[in-house]
Amino acid sequence: MLRSQRWYEGDGVRAFSHRTRTRQLGIGGPEHLGKPVIAIVNTWTELNPCHSHLRERAEAVKRGVWQAGGYPVELPAGSMGGETFQKPTAMLYRNLLSMETEELLRSYPVDGAVLMGGCDKTTPALLMGAASMDLPAIFVPAGPMLRGNWRGQVLGSGSDMWKYWDDRRAGLVDDRQWGELEEGLARSPGHCMTMGTASTMTSVAEVLGMTLPGAASIPAVDSGHERMAAASGMRIVEMVREDLKPSDILDERSYRDAITTVLALGGSTNAVIHLVAMANRSGVKITPDDFDEASRTVPVLADIRPSGRFLMEDFYYAGGLRGLLARLRDRLHLDRPTASGATFGETLDGAEVFNDEVIRPLDNPLAADGGLAVLRGNLAPDGAVIKPIAARPELLSHTGPAIVFDGYGDLQRRIDDEDLDVTADSVLVLRGAGPLGGPGIPEHGMLPIPKKLLRAGVRDVVRISDARMSGTSYGTCVLHVAPESHAGGPLALLRNGDMVTLDVPKRLLHMHVDDAELARRRAAWTPPPPRYTRGYGAMFSRHIQQADLGCDFDFLAEPGRTPEPDAT
């Protein structure tokens, strides 16, 4: 029996009430009774340019649902507008959207779901909620925007913003050029067209098996994107009839393949946090160390910014994610199920690469390894993450004196001070920017290069923080230091002038302070007061886990099932 029938069938007063209110909506009985009811969980808003086309795409999904004999209902869900608009960070609300998704699907008379998102945190949030609810579900990625353009140069959102911002601070970009860049950087609906967090996580959704084959690479404004949305609507009706649920798709094999794919893409460091949390919702245990282990042997094949040269539109024309995965077949679990109804291996049949520069062959990778690395030491006992391929190679083994900033406000006030005692050998450290301190572990980890160094031609120094970094960013940035400083991690004990060693080949992050001195500093340390005393922020602060655990809420990460509501 369809789940929705529990609401609609029978002679009881509740079923009568449900039918009456559906008639109030102008819906006749033959339109929905006995048909799979499909929730379209749409994260469209007028403050999320990444999703500005999802209102129209929802209509395409509905078209597909109707054609397959289902009944679609659109359920708006809280959209997170990336780091552009939502403050202090969209990451503060990832778990809230996952809860909303789970409870929307649980509390309403729906049999399956089409999840519509793509901007950074929406993808993991929607998939986490769907995994916890475990109704048949398929994901429709928002798709990347078109390439940017400025004076004949191809621009990549995020990556070129950081590049030209440094140039502007160095006095190399005037007001007119800056205004032109403002209008040329982001030219269409869709998420970032670099291999930032958005493209990384929609690719993750596809390799996990939660989309139709090829869905993640299609540009947002390509007509193929609308066709994919309609086909997803058709497919979810079949999935309900087959009772094909996330728990049938999301197993250890799918998450291992996702890790391999993130590394081969040169994907965002944020994928570590998101995949750890997502896997846990599926009852699968992965840790940051799994990324580090795989990174030693998985080559980087996607020559996409910020690590490479090209953009997602080029990637799509070169064969897209299916083309890249076809080159990794021997490293993947091909016999697992996917939302398409075919095995993962079958979804790759016929996939080709049409441009070996954009999607490199295995014998000519962008890098033989080093997509991500996990560091440990007395500065990060529970780990920290770096993207070696995006760093200056000569800085991957470096020792220098720390310059410590206590929170983002302190960083903004002092970073360009001409009296700041900074050189190219300095190690810039930002603390108070983790899950508790940020709050919400914002994308402050790409600390700006001080102006005095920019003017001298310096474009990278070692930077360390308990924050995250935009996946569109680059540089020698050590991120997600755990435990964070606000939780009493060793980062809280670091002082200006302490020597710090980063040694990526040895996976080491170490401060040269003896244990006795650290014990004295620990005894004198006072925990900072809570950021929030009420509301969602207080709940967040009381239940958020650290970065190495995926920053999920402890009560959402618990195993077990939530009871179905009584619809009668």
UniProtKB/TrEMBL annotation:
- According to the entry, every stretch annotated as the Dihydroxy-acid/6-phosphogluconate dehydratase N-terminal domain falls at 35-346
Instruction: Name the domain of life.
Output: Bacteria
Q: Which Pfam families match?
A: ILV_EDD_C, ILVD_EDD_N
Q: Is-annotated flag, keyword Amino-acid biosynthesis?
A: yes
Query: Annotated Gene Ontology MF terms?
Result: 2 iron, 2 sulfur cluster binding; hydro-lyase activity; metal ion binding
Q: Which NCBIfam families match?
A: PRK06131.1, PRK13016.1, PRK13017.1
The name of this protein is Dihydroxy-acid dehydratase
Its lineage opens with:
Bacteria, Bacillati, Actinomycetota, Actinomycetes, Pseudonocardiales
